[in-house]
Amino acid sequence: MIELAQKDGLWTVTIYNPGKANALTGAMLTELAEIAEAATEARALILTGVGKVFSAGADLDEARAGLATSDVWERLSGAIAALPCLTVAALNGTLAGGAHGMVLACDLRIAVPSAKFFYPVMKLGFLPQPSDPKRMSALIGPARTKLILMAGQKITAPEAYAFGLVDRVVESEDLLSTARQLVADSVGADPKIASGIAELCV
């Protein structure tokens, strides 16, 4: 349920579980983490999904059985954040719950106009993964982070853009082409130069 395409140094990872709104199982998260850990030789990585939802977060049955507090979420987001190449989350639709972790760990985020963002972790009785509030707060500030995590607000794509949670809002038919345009220079550059610039931007 995870698809990987590799071409000329560009890795495109697609979440494919449309029957369950791309909900993430433990096996899917482990596969995503393994791909991210293996992507150290990639020149760029694009993370996307199929259908109208990027990911509904954890599969509810598995979440109740322990997935909600598994360390695999941190393993995945940490592996993405550690990549030396440019990483782009191309959000084909709504982003919910723990799926925020991998997206927040990316360098850039683009989204379709219909996307919504919500993280109802407090309502469900769980703490967010440790790095998620820190990364979110670094992007949009503590108050807006609490608006999402504590006030339980759903944020629209235009609001997310205004907040700085996403970097561009693009039509669905342009989503992947825009993502490829964003990584084109990095794919064509000397990897040492690209990773050196990435280090300077931290």
Kindly summarize this structure in a few lines.
By secondary structure, the chain is an alpha/beta fold. It has helices at 26-38, 60-64, 72-82, 100-104, 121-124, 131-140, 142-149, 157-163, 175-188, 191-200; strands at 2-7, 10-15, 44-49, 53-55, 86-91, 94-96, 108-111, 116-118, 155-156, 168-169.
Structure characterization notes:
This protein has one domain: 2-enoyl-CoA Hydratase, Chain A, domain 1 (Alpha-Beta Complex), CATH 3.90.226.10. It has helices spanning 26-38, 60-64, 72-82, 100-104, 121-124, 131-140, 142-149, 157-163, 175-188, 191-200, and strands at residues 2-7, 10-15, 44-49, 53-55, 86-91, 94-96, 108-111, 116-118, 155-156, 168-169. It has a six-stranded mixed sheet with strand order 1-2-3-5-7-10, sandwiched between helices. A four-stranded mixed sheet has the order 4-6-8-9. The termini are far apart. With 202 residues, it is α/β, with parallel strands linked by helices. Helix 1 (26-38) packs parallel to helix 3 (72-82) and helix 6 packs across helix 7.
CATH topology: 2-enoyl-CoA Hydratase, Chain A, domain 1
Biggest pleated-sheet summary: 6 strands, mixed
| Uncertain residue segments | none
Structural Rg: 16 Å
Q: Approximately how much beta-strand content do the residues carry?
A: 15-25%
CATH superfamily membership: 2-enoyl-CoA Hydratase, Chain A, domain 1
Oligomeric form: single chain
Envelope shape: globular
Strand order in space, largest sheet: 1-2-3-5-7-10
